[in-house]
Structure formats: structure tokens, C-alpha cells
Amino acid sequence: MKRIKLETIVDHSVLIIGSLIMILPVAMLLQMASTPDIETMRNGPGLVFGDQIPANFEKAMFEASGFSGENTGLRMLYNSLILGLGFAIGKIVIGMMAAYAIVYFRLKFATLAFWIIFTTLLLPLEVRILPSYEIVQKLGMLNTYQGLIIPLIASATATFFFRQFFRSVPEELIEAARIDGAGPIKFFVDILVPLSRTMIAAMFIIMFVYGWNQYLWPTMITTDEGMFTLVRGIKQITQTLEGTNLPEYGKSNILQIIAILPPVLIVIFFQSWFVKGLTESDK
Amino acid sequence: MAQVTLNTLRKVYPNGFEAVKPASFTIEKGEFVVLVGPSGCGKSTMLRMIAGLEDITQGDLQIGDRIVNDVDPADRDIAMVFQNYALYPHMTVRKNIGYGLKNRKIAKDVIDQKVTDAANLLNLNDYLDRKPSQLSGGQRQRVAMGRAIVRDPSLFLFDEPLSNLDAKLRNQMRIEIKALQRRLGVTSVYVTHDQVEAMTMADRIIVMNGGEIEQIGTPAQVYHSPASTFVASFMGAPPMNLLDALVAENAAMIGGQTIAQFAGHGPVTLGIRPEDILPDPNGDFEINVTLIEELGAHRILHATWAGQTIMVSVAKDVTAETGTMHVAIKSDALSFFDAQTGRRL
Amino acid sequence: MKRAGFSIRWLPILLLLPQLSIILIFFYWPAAHAVRSSFFLQDPFGFGETFVGLKNYTSLLKSSAYLRSAQFTVIFTLMVTALSLSLALLLAVKADKVIKGAKTYRTFLMWVYAVAPPVAGVIGLVLFDQSWGPLKEFFGLFGWDFRLGVDYFDTAFAMVVISVWKQLPVNFIFFLSGLQSIPKSVREAALIDNRSASGRFWDVTFPLLAPTAFFLLIINITYALFDTFGIIDTVVKGEPSNNPMTLVYRVYVDGFRGNDLGGSSAQSVVLMVLVLALTVFQFRMVERRIHYT
Ligand SMILES: Nc1ncnc2c1ncn2[C@@H]1O[C@H](COP(=O)(O)OP(=O)(O)O)[C@@H](O)[C@H]1O
Ligand SMILES: [Mg+2]
Predict the structure, then answer these.
(1) Fewest CB atoms within 10 A around its CB: which of A158, C140, C194, C217?
(2) Per UniProt, which keywords does this protein have (chain B) (predicted)?
(3) What ipTM does this complex have?
């Protein structure tokens, strides 16, 4: 048998400690969601898992947290899905179209369009949050899905990403396709889109997670409880924990878990696409 | 099959660079023409203008009986083979070959038949359902050929189609392409920077340099009577020796010795192919061999002659040693060029 | 642009239209609006506005609360960036080295990427809870009476810890993929040239990772400035009062809660300038790097 080197033990120890630091805090939420609230209130998070998860899950999904009775977990989950999907799909479709126009057409104002679009990479939404809010308000889009999604799309990350990718596609491909009689739409549909499949998947994961996890913008734009997303609802949920006799720790914590579950699962299961999307988008 | 006529065809890129200076020539029906020249001389630009992938700045291009300057590439009745093959990576070999036909709205069973025929011709039957990434370089090359063939074009265009293959495969594909073209009889324009390809494949060679056509001629013409010092040094390996000579009293002289009779006066450049300098103990000329390159079938002697370096090619059974050596010169194989312009005199 | 690009006119315009109109309405308009508002004083009841020149800016510079936030932001950004980069590098180097379980470790160390910042904030609330927070109790063992939301330093400490935790995965992923893209031949050459593992790391691996590290530096600064909003907002439970806050959080608090539109716009403009400076710096560094290689 080979002697295990001390170095290997150190390496694994570091990695195990690192992994525990990443996992334990979330496991703690799960533990609290499985324990009766009264116990949590007395002792905080413990080591033993209880049997309350199904009950808390039901409460979280179907019992409203606010006053209007509209923001049940189910409703918030639905809104989160719309935000995540709408954002990801919108951004990819719009970005691919724009990138296609910039890379594959002889456009007089291509450079101008390029700069107009790519300047948006410089300023995140957060620095222009108030005026954006005012404009959405002026347009009557508060508490709407459009108001929630479209302003978030107003940055060119996906466009930039696809532009980079399209540029790396060999020149000869469009030339061969043109000789083969493919026009601009056919070339896009028959060749460029299938060729970009992995890129689209990678982008989709990054964008879905990004959209799903939005907090500041939904906090400002949605005041109507029926429009809350899970992530946006968190603040209200934690606030209801304050000043009650028996805070609903179980329900609150299972909502946190539900809020992170879809993006976490996507990231874990489509890990290689996710890593590709993250490292190649270079923002 | 089509005749192709270029009438003062010129290309200036948007940045103002003149990649092709006005060029005129005609390619006959069924002819195999090779455009050869160093990289960057404008060969691809010329070919791409013929294909319609590049706008024509000036002049007319006629394929068959119509002027096609403004005709879309797909409607020029051409097929093109690219250096990197430009296969569609997500499509199978079958779909790659058939894509152009599908876009022409040709019936599916006709497409299938044509693809199968092309695959038979190119030995691709076993690979029809593979993706390009599962093929070897030579097979991809064949698929690219197949894609060109199925369209029954009246003109084949090749842009350095063999550059990405290893030496052995390149020789083999060279022969295959040539044989295929003979069989199909399709007019072809073939671009390469490799003079061996040009010599072996062409019916006629067009030598280009710096956007200009230096010479148009059969391989033999280009080799034996180069139109300029550029052609002389570009075609042939090792290249033609170019020596400074002086013409006086109807004789061309190097190092004070008369080489050949030649009318005129003043300095000229004299061209001699390495194989036209013959080792001969009784030869009139004395060279100093400094290095011997062994190539198996023959040897290349690097030598100096009257202070100028030359190369001499000798057969393998000729004994050669470094040091002084006597040689004779085939005086009917000499070329003379203007010392200033480099044009043939 | 591709050399054989299509020359149809209307199609590219049509393709660009959605992107351009969204950008014009939701990017350029608000950005211009922010710049404009920063020179005006808004009536709190919405009845008009008065031009006040640079007054919003000068009063920012005079506001001790603002300067305190600026100071906190700088320290916070430095701490978060330095800590999460170095920890991630350590983990990435180890994860790149081990053979057994490499995939599992990778998954464990990166999945937190998908956790929303406010959820990370909630985790912080639990960990540092006044009555039974595990970390609070742990620090109590050393006589540190941790008071989240009450003590300025303790709150800032908690914000840094959570922000580092949340950012670790991104840095880890980039470092790991940077390490994995170092050619095997280079590693083998280093193995022959240098006996010491740490020597090899600092002489060969680290310089090759430098571009990744520099890129991450920018990413982390941007993260600390902007993306920590959700963490901060949950940790202070929406009650900024005396708690530390970043500049971005202050834009929101002053403008959205405090209704000081002019002041908040001036703050936005300051942030824009900051981000632009950062980007220019980034471009210049990237350019220089290209010159070297
Ligand atoms: N789109 C372009 N814009 C400007 N110059 C170009 C462009 N394409 C090619 N060139 C230049 O034109 C010359 C000829 O190019 P090309 O025809 O590709 O040469 P070859 O195929 O003979 O190697 C080169 O010097 C090249 O740099
Ligand atoms: Mg070329």
C-alpha cells in the first residue's frame, strides 16, 4: 500500500473545511425549517433534524405572509419564475439579434451602434436606480412584469457575449452558406443558432440565476404583494419575525430554501455549461 | 461548363488598399487555371470577387454569357472549396453536402440520390451520418469537395484547399482533385501559394505578385520562360539563379567571361535554372562549391561564381565535392531580364 | 464585421431595434436624468424644482454621514476583495491539485453562487442572532459580546463575513479554470526546474494567473460596491439608523426613503464617475498586459 502523504491530508482538510463553510449555513436554515418554532425560538439552530418540513412547506406555499393575502409561496415562486425566465429569454433573444446585426451585416452605423450598446456595460443598474424608477413610474409600469423585467435587460452583457462568440465563428462559414444559397434569415436559423447551442445554454443559466436573484429592483418596482418574487419577499418575511410572540421560523426558513432551490439545482446539474458561461462571458 | 472573362477587374478595400490591380484574362471552358503567388498578393481577393463574396470595385466579370458583377453568390452557378473546409459543424456529412440543394428547393429524393452519387465518387459512403468533427482531415476535405460537386456547378473555385493537410495526404488529394476535374470537365480556378501544386495541376498558371499579374502561361512556359525575375525566383525549387551580368559587344559576361551572345548594352540580370548548369571537367567556367545538400535523387550544390552565390542541381550519380569545380552552361536555357525592371528581355 | 457580411439594409436595423430602444429608454434616459437632477433641488411635495448648480455636490462633501459611508465603502470593498480572493485562491489551488473527489469539492465550493444575496443576509442574521446565533456564541467564548445591528464595528464585521462567503464561489471558479488552462507542459517544465512546490507556485503559477486575478479584482470591487445591496439591506433589517452602509445603499436610502432626489442623484453621478474610472483603469491595464505578451 502506498503511504498517504501528509501534504495530501492537508489538501483534503482545507477543501473539506471550505466545503463545510459553504454548506453548513444553508443546512442550518434547513434544520430550522424542520424543527418546531417553539424549539427554535428557545435554542436556535440545533444539530438534529425534526419532522416539520412537510407542514412548514405547506404553510410556506399556501399561506400568505402579508396583509393582502396574495403573497403565498406559490404565488411568489410563480413570479420568480417569470422574472428569471423572462429576463433570461428576453436578454438572450434581444442580445443575439443585436449581435447578429453587428457582426454579420455591412452596416454604415455599426460602430456607432456598437458604442451605444456597449457603453451600457459600464454602468450597472444600481447607479441609476432612482431615475430608472421614475421613468418606469412615468410609463405606468410599476407593479407589472414588463416594468420588472425590461429595465433589467437594458444592459448589453448578452449582446457582448454573443458578439464575441459570433466573431470567433470562422468567416468561411457564412461564405459557404451564401454560396449554398442561404439568405440572412436562413443562415441565422439553420447555421448560427444551432452552432450557438452551448453558448445559449450557458448564457441562459447565468441570466436565469441573475434574474431570479434580483432584489433591489423588484423591491422598488413592486409594492403590490401579488407581484412579489421570492427573493423580494424575503425582507417582508424576516420583518414579520420581529415582534411576534412566536415567530414563524419554520415557514420563513423553508421559504428561503425554496427561494434558492431552483437556481442552485440548475447550477449544480448544468455545472459545465454554467462554468463555461461564467468564465467566458467575462462580463 | 462556362467560360470566365475578367475585364480590368480591380479591388480596392474600404481602407483604401488596392489588393488587386486591374486584371484581364479569360479562362476557357473546362480549363484548370491555378492562381499562384506569395501570401498576401491578392489571390484570394481575386477568387472571392469571382465567387461574389467580395464586391468588385471596377471592371466586369463574365461567367458564361452573363455579366455577374451584381449577381448573388448563390446565383452564379459556382461552387467553392475553402482552406478550412467551412463544413457546418452541427450537420452530418449528408446534410452538409445536401444543404445547397435543399436551399434550391430540390426534391428530397433527388437530393438523396445526388448525395449518394457524390459520396460514391469520393469514397464517403461509410461516413454520411457522421459529423465533421468525427472525420479526419482528408475526409473533411472530401466532404468539402462533395458539397461542391453535387451542385453541378459550371465553375469550381478552390482557395488553398490542401494547405491544412500533411504532405503525404496533400500529394494524394492533389491527384484526386485533378482527376476529378478531368472527369467532370468543370472549369476550375484554383488558388495556392505552393508552386508545386501550381505546376502539377494547372492547364495554365497565373502568377501574381503585389496585386498584379506577373505572367499567364502553361506550366512549361512559366518554368522555362519566366516573364520576370519574380516569376523566375518564385517558380521552381530550388529557384532559378539570378546573376548580375554585363552586356557589351553583343555578349553577356559574368566575371569577365562571356556566357552567351546577347544584343544590347549595360547591366542585365541573367537567369539560369540550377539543373542547366552541368558539371563538366572540360567546362569553361569555374565555380567554388561551399556546401552540398543531399536530397537522395539529386544533390544541390551551393557555390559561388565570380563572387555571386548560385545553386546547382546534379543527379545522384554525379560525384561532387566542396572546392573548385568546372561546369558548362546550357546556353539555350538562359533567360535575360532588365536589371532595373526585372522584366524579361 | 464579417468580410462577406450581408448587405441588406432593413434587416439589421430591425434586429437592432429592440436592443436600442430598450437601452435608450431605460439606460440613457435615466442616466441623463440623474445627471440633470443632480443640479436641481426638488420640492419635496413634487411642485417643481430649482436649479442649484453644484450645491448638491458640495453639500454631499460636507455631510459627515456621507463621508462616513464613503470611508466604510472603501474599507468594506478592500476587505471583501482581499479576503474572498485569497481564500478562493487557496481553495482553487487545492482543488486543482487533489485527484480524488475533485468534482465533488468543486460542486460544494461553487453552488453558493446561486444563493440570492438577501438569503445570504438572512443566514447572517441567524448566525449572529442576539439570543442564540452560533457565531455570536462562539465569539462569546472569547469574551467578544457580538451585537449585530447595534454595534457599528460588529455589524460591519458581519457584513464582510457574509459578503466574502457569497463571493467566494465566483472567485473560486475563475481561479480554478485559470489554473486548469495552464498548459501541462509548462507545469512539467516547472517541475523539472524547481524543487520547491511553493517556489513553483510563486514563480510560475501565480504570474500565469495574474490576468485572471486582475480581472477578478475588478469584478470583486464591482461586487462589493453594488451587488452587496441585498446583504446589507437584510442585515440592517431595513433600518439603516446608525449602521454602516455602502454608497449604493445610501443612494437608495436618501433618494427612495428620504425623498432627497437632488442629493441622491448627485450621489448616483459620483458612483457613475467612480465606475467609469474603474473601467478606464481596467482597459489601460488590459492594454498594457497585451503589450507585454
Ligand atoms: N478586408 C480587407 N481590408 C483590407 N485589406 C485586406 C482585406 N482583406 C485582405 N486585405 C489585404 O489584401 C491583400 C491581399 O489579400 P488576399 O487576397 O487574402 O491575399 P492572398 O490570398 O494572396 O494571400 C493582403 O495584403 C491583405 O492584407
Ligand atoms: Mg488567401
Answers:
(1) C140
(2) ATP-binding, Cell inner membrane, Cell membrane, Membrane, Nucleotide-binding, Sugar transport, Translocase, Transport
(3) 0.91
